[in-house]
Amino acid sequence: MTEANPNPKAKSRQSDESPEPLSLDEAADLATRVVENVEQVIVGHRDPTEHIVTAILARGHLLLDDVPGVGKTMLARSLARSIDCAFTRVQFTPDLLPTDVTGVNVFDERTREFEFRPGPVFGNVVLADEINRAPPKTQSALLEAMEEAQVTVDGETYELDQPFTVIATQNDVEADRTYDLPIAEVDRFMKRLSLGYPSPEDESEVLRRVTGRHPIESLDPVATGEEVRRARETVANVTAEEAVREYVTRLANYTRDHAELGVSPRGSIALLRAGQARAVLDGRDYVVPDDVQAEAEAVLGHRVRTGGDLGGRSGPELIASALESVPVK
To answer: What's the rounded Cα separation, in Å, for the pair 150 and 130?
Structure first.
């Protein structure tokens, strides 16, 4: 693993060109390698692992929401170790400041000038651990980075290196000691996932693996950051026919007709991109409705608010209803 870039460039001076896409087979193989590598550490969570990999290939961010101790942070760390790129971590606490995330200008007495010192957001895979323990002002420090892959400090804008993905963890067990994520921030997460408790067989396997050294200590990268960038280009080139695009639109409109707050256009875009990544994972260069359906709950569920339930707990149920009710034409 490498360190985050210590000297980020101002936006006006950075001009990265799009990399050459991987072939479809190479991109599918990369995704499978990463999933299988993570499974050396994480037991019994193939589906969430695939969801994380497809989100990264679709240029998205992840929110892992579950009770403490089920492996959210370990899953994020295993994913980051599987890709040879800059991994940074922010432990969110009530006293964390926005500049602790983005970075700050510091006066250098030797040069008599201000020097920008980047924060941990300047990484390729950024783990925002226990994100809901920090107040909304600090959480909002991620908004620009997640949406535009850039950070603005004191009027100067800095581009973030690619690939860039935020993986955040949170739990709502201690509601009196945590803060609700702003809706604008929740909407910037491509997917919201839960792991749940393992089966007795899987938990027994976990105990076997952690006897002695933890398996994450010997986990080696199986992909480079440049390969991920090229795989993202492969995903972006996957064909989505008009019929599939219209299906995504109908699903989004169903939520708007049946919820207090429905899926935003950003959510529709996220679902289509996730469907493109799912197609690549399955070795196809075109999206089919099954790809959309496989991604719909993880991508759309957290964006929906029904009735007075501000936590959106009925969101996944509404998405399930949409998938049953909206026809595939």
So the answer is: 23
- Residue 178: CB partners within 8 Å, gap ≥ 6? 132, 133, 170, 171, 172
Which 3 state secondary structure label does DSSP give 207?
helix
Domain with CATH 1.10.8.80 in the chain: 238-329
Nearest to 51 by CA among 67, 62, 40, 66: 62
Summarised one tens digit per residue, pLDDT across range 176-191 is 678 888 888 899 999 9
pLDDT at 13: 40
Give residue-wise pLDDT tens across range 121-142: 999 999 999 999 999 888 888 9
Protein fold of 238-329? Helicase, Ruva Protein; domain 3 (1.10.8)
Domain with CATH 3.40.50.300 in the chain: 1-196+222-237
State which H helix or E strand residue 224 sits in: strand 223-224
Over 46-67, what HEC string results?
A: HHHHHHHHHHHHCCCCEEEECC
Q: How far apart are CA 242 and CA 201, in angstroms?
A: 44
C-alpha 65/C-alpha 77 separation (Å) is: 15
Residue 268 tokens read as: 């529709």
Q: From 76, 2, 29, select the one nearest 231 (Cα to Cα).
A: 29
Q: Which of 18, 84, 85 is nearest to 234 (CA)?
A: 18
CATH code assigned to 1-196+222-237? 3.40.50.300
Q: Distance between CA 64 and CA 73 in Å, rounded?
A: 9
